[in-house]
Design brief:
Structural class: mainly alpha
Order of helices and strands: HHEHHEHEHHHEEHEEH
Radius of gyration: 28 Å
Largest sheet: 3 strands, antiparallel
Helix content: 55-70%
Distance between the termini: 85 Å
Number of helices: 10
Strand content: 5-15%
CATH superfamily of the largest domain: Winged helix-like DNA-binding domain superfamily/Winged helix DNA-binding domain
Number of domains: 2
Strand order of the largest sheet: 1-3-2
Amino acid sequence: MFSEKGKPKDEIFKECKSLNKYLGCVTNPKTGAIIYALSKLTVTSPHELRKFLGASSHTVIEHQLMKLLNKGFVSAITKANPLHDTYYRFWMRMYPTTNKRATLYEASEDTKAIADLFKKRLSEPFSEKTLKRMSSRGISFRRMLEADRNRKEKRDAEREEYAVGVMGACAQCGIVISKDDQDGGKVKRFNKKIYHKLCLDKKLKEM
């Protein structure tokens, strides 16, 4: 069956269930505070969340994180994540004495959207000072991520440019032969291999 606007009713039902799931976490003071903190920090740990939320123990934070993890609000950063090493490098710079096995958690896009939608309600438990600190920490992380991405793109571009300009290595001396060398007549082919002209001349004389 379809609604008046043509959308399948089962699809509408799923959307309502999804919205109810979000509202349940938003209206819960503990998970709501974590959702907002995560949206600002982007990536965090139970230790850092405890500091910003003023929680009595890590256990309290971890319990709420598991709820959010099961509902898709957050994801744990595992080694399968292509940015795993980048995230942990940043973390060790921020918290040099932290346990290297500490699990980091990342906010989902839904989490950020929900936090923006209910910003006024979710930000109420935090002081202005804490909000500024969380925002500043989040900005630092995103800047690091952008800088890391730019460095990677630059390295990839340099490798590609290098690969385009390289024919291979001389079979005699092992030095890289560029296409410019070929254009200058400094390269010869012999027995399906490439040589510097002088290297091949020397090789042929020794044969």
